[in-house]
Amino acid sequence: MFRDILVALEENSVALTPFAVSFAKSVGARCVAVRPRRDAINDGALAARYELAAGDQEARKIKARDALEAFGSAAAAAGVEAELILPDGAQDPRRDQLAAFARGFDLTLVGQAEPGRGPTMDDLPGQLLAESGRPVLVVPAIQRDGATLSRVLAAWDGSATAARAFGDAAPLFERADSIEIVTVTNANSSGAVVQGGERLAGRLARSGLKASFKRLPSEEDAANAILSYVADVGADMLVTGGYGHSQLREALFGGATRTFLGSQTVPLFMSR
Q1: CB 139 within 8 A of CB 271
Q2: Which of 129, 168, 212, 241 could pair covalently with 162 via S-S, beta carbons 3.0-4.6 A apart?
Q3: DSSP conformation letters of 171-205
Q4: pLDDT in tens, 191-204
């Protein structure tokens, strides 16, 4: 179960606060919200670098406090328990410390870094996925609705990371109206992968959940095929494994992970 979730707010987290509050309410979780601080002028977005280079730390603190207090107000209005890690507090983590901080939580919610491009070494979604050892829920920049779990899709390719994501997403599956395990197939597909997806769907069905398995024939890139299918069926969330490495994140992010994070249109639940 998701008892304690971390919400990592950044400059581009407009969509994150309302989604995170509604998600926490739907799963009965407690939130801890943080605005990770930057201590290096080469860290983060261009506007943040300029702000630090100009020595305007006080402006950063005011913005961080405002964002956190807005989150706290939204949580209180929804009846969600929330703790705010305020700037310069005893627990206020630097941005490069956030992945280690996130290990103490069941799940971390973070906003999409920038629509249209894949992860880089400066992006929080990539850092958290690669280094926290915990599942990460990435909220797309275009998200305007609260959290809903009417139709959840899980991408299955038979990998260890897909299996990890499937296991970590169990609390979501239990609350979903329907779950669909999706495998992209082509002339070179492994029968064992398809059989594995069928077994997972059967396992959920035997638990009393509405679950099914879907082969998605396609000769195009698997991640793009899945994202197209997500849009076609109006899915509310996509569960998938992710790739990354703490030392060589930018070079080693798998192609599917890069595509998912850059082109997502629905919340993306990821584990590795």
Answers
A1: no
A2: 241
A3: HHHHH-SEEEEEEEE-TT--HHHHHHHHHHHHHHH
A4: 999 999 999 999 99
